[in-house]
């Protein structure tokens, strides 16, 4: 009896101690956040991690970005504009304040109070979720984890991944989430190149599986962005991101299907979408194009359907939209062949085609999952001879799915060069392209983005086809 009482008292004592220490970690970090003295580290300084780190330092927090890529770290510390749509001096200004620096030394994570993981979550070769970057980053954080820190995963993952993948790794050393350290998920909603909504203007969803972590996440992100939106769990926050992107995936597939159907009826889909968008409720415009690209829209729905299958459910509508989007570049290549034959009787085999834009969307230097590269590849398989022009890529970068294209050079956009092609295929509507020059010299323009009409550039009769 005495033994049982003794064990009970010791257990209760431990619990009281745990609750007290957890509460003191909570109030200490809360105090550091409110005085903007909490030291923040982002793991990953890419399209998401770098703008985030800069925004946090601009909000007054001492911030360091940790990245494995030493060359990128050196560029950032030299103040070079590594992301083209940034204001020229944004990085330099952040460095000048003394509140921001980049490092490739992961041991510095031990100094941080708050660690935000912003590493890639691509697809594997088999096109399943590839969580290896997240696992490695979590292992790195775990190696330097100390009591009182807060860790937030920002990479896009399947619902449940923070709790099932990241948490066990962080707890391997004996510290426990919600008691010794705080853990949560906040999806990144960055839209690269969007000057209307930067990191600071986009509300942040924050989710965690215990009350203290939830409150600290909400407190911290309220200092950084216009609004923090708390949700009840990390899985809910993970799901929000996937729902947003799956919504886009399905609507892009829908509008591309509309384009083909309306085209056959002789109706201009862009005019239809523009007119439909005047409805003040119940409709949101999506625009046709050569397919989807980037690190988000083609990838998130895969994470969602993979997890749905894993738990015995399914997402057939999303899967159909994905396959519609994935085959869009093939359909574009097919249309190029048809239009070449119709306009001048040119066979696609041996035809010279200039691909205008290889980035997955306008005004960014990012070719991940770019539909332009898939269309280029397909045209070459059909026997076309393709070149490209892209002001953001003087040289074609290395990509996993198009390794054999790496090293090709962007052609100069002169009237003489353009006139030498049987067709110009517009795949990306970058702003910094001389569209009047193309209009004046191309034999045939196949425009997947409606950029000529959008920019009011007149093309001589019969030479512009919107595909
Ligand atoms: N790019 C977007 O538009 C966008 C938008 C919203 C969400 N996301 C999501 O945000 C996440 C990050 O995407 P991104 O576009 O910033 O990727 P990115 O490839 O541009 O950058 C990732 C960076 O992480 C670094 N890195 C990888 N592993 C590391 C490690 N263990 N330690 C330190 N650094 C490491 C890489 O060197 C790279 O610089 C992904 O999950 C993505 O789906 C991206």
Gyration radius from CA atoms, angstroms: 25 Å
The number of domains is 2
The count of β-strands is: 13
Alpha-carbon distance between the two ends: 84 Å
Strand content: 5-15%
Q: Structural class, please?
A: alpha/beta
Helix content: 40-55%
SS summary, helix count: 16
Which residue ranges are poorly predicted, with pLDDT under 50 across at least 5 consecutive positions? 1-12
CATH topology of the largest domain: Rossmann fold
User: Which ligands are bound?
Assistant: nicotinamide-adenine-dinucleotide
CATH superfamily of the largest domain: NAD(P)-binding Rossmann-like Domain
What key phrases describe this protein's structure?
467 residues, alpha/beta, Rossmann fold, 2 domains, six-stranded parallel sheet, five-stranded parallel sheet, 16 helices, 11% strand, elongated, disordered N terminus, binds nicotinamide-adenine-dinucleotide
């Amino acid at each position: 009896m005495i033994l049982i009482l003794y064990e009970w008292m010791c257990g209760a004592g431990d619990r009281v101690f745990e609750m007290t220490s957890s509460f003191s970690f909570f109030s200490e970090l809360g105090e550091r956040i409110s005085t903007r003295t909490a030291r923040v580290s982002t793991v990953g300084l890419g399209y998401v991690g770098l703008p985030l780190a800069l925004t946090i330092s601009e909000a007054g927090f001492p911030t360091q970005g940790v990245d494995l890529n030493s060359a990128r770290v050196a560029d950032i510390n030299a103040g070079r504009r590594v992301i083209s749509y940034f204001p020229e001096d944004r990085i330099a200004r952040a460095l000048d304040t003394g509140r921001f620096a980049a490092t490739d030394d992961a041991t510095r994570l031990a100094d941080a109070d708050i660690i935000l993981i912003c590493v890639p979550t691509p697809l594997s070769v088999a096109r399943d979720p590839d969580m290896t970057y997240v696992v490695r980053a979590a292992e790195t954080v775990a190696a330097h984890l100390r009591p009182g820190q807060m860790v937030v995963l920002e990479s896009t993952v399947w619902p449940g991944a923070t709790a099932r993948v990241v948490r066990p790794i962080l707890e391997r050393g004996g510290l426990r989430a919600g008691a010794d350290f705080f853990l949560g998920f906040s999806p990144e909603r960055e839209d690269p190149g969007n000057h209307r909504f930067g990191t600071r203007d986009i509300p942040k969803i924050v989710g965690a599986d215990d009350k203290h972590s939830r409150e600290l996440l909400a407190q911290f992100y309220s200092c950084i962005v216009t609004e923090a939106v708390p949700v009840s769990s990390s899985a809910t926050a993970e799901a929000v991101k996937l729902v947003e992107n799956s919504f886009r995936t399905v609507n892009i597939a829908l509008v591309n299907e509309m384009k083909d159907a309306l085209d056959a009826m002789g109706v201009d889909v862009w005019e239809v979408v523009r007119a439909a968008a005047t409805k003040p409720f119940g409709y949101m415009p999506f625009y046709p194009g050569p397919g989807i690209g980037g690190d988000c829209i083609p990838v998130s729905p895969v994470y969602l359907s993979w997890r749905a299958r894993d738990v015995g459910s399914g997402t057939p509508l999303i899967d159909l939209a994905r396959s519609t989007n994935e085959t869009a570049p093939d359909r574009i290549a097919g249309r190029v062949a048809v239009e070449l034959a119709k306009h001048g009787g040119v066979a696609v085999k041996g035809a010279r085609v200039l691909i205008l834009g290889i980035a997955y969307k306008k005004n960014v230097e990012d070719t991940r999952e770019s539909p332009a590269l898939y269309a280029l590849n397909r045209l070459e398989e059909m026997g076309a001879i393709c070149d490209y022009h892209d002001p953001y890529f003087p040289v074609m970068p290395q990509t996993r799915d198009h390794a054999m294209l790496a090293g090709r050079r962007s052609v100069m956009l002169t009237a003489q060069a353009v006139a030498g092609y049987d067709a110009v295929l517009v795949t990306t509507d970058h702003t910094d392209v001389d569209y009047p020059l193309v209009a004046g010299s191309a034999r045939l323009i196949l425009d997947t983005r409606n950029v000529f009409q959008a920019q009011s550039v007149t093309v001589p009769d019969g030479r512009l086809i919107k595909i």
